[in-house]
Amino acid sequence: MPGLTRQPPVRCATRPGPRPPALSAGLAARVCPPRAPGRPRPNIARMTFLDPSARDLFPDWEAQARDLTAYLRHAAAHYPDDQELHALIGELSVHSRDFVRIWSAHPVSDCLPSVRAYRHPQVGSMTLHEEVVRLTDDPGVRIIFSGAREGTPSAERLRLLASLG
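The structure assignment produced for this chain is given below.
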């Protein structure tokens, strides 16, 4: 991922812990409707499995769902006492047949660098490169940088998305 960190205008970051990240100022957060006062920020796993608009946001929804499920299984093994994590897994198990189907295949994976496609309702299709940085003082915390290669339509669309504020 050469050059990603040299291009601040076309990147965003999220900070996941043991649970899939609450959406921050990243790309997916701009797609979700604003949260109601007193409600927690949307969670990317909850959005992927329980919000029908996620199938439009992720052109390869199945891969997104599989990656998130694999990470949830990985996190559950590493954080067996995390009640919020297990409540999230329970919620998805009750409300999403797709989650149950994928979970039953037993995928396991940590957050890994990837290339992910998005189809944003306001700016169109983008291909973003994701890089994962682990904090040495707290290995359970990672920062995921998402960015587009300079000079590509994805970079222009990411800038446009950022300007929509």
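Interim note for the steering committee: The radius of gyration is 16 Å. The CA atoms of residues 134 and 142 lie 4 Å apart.
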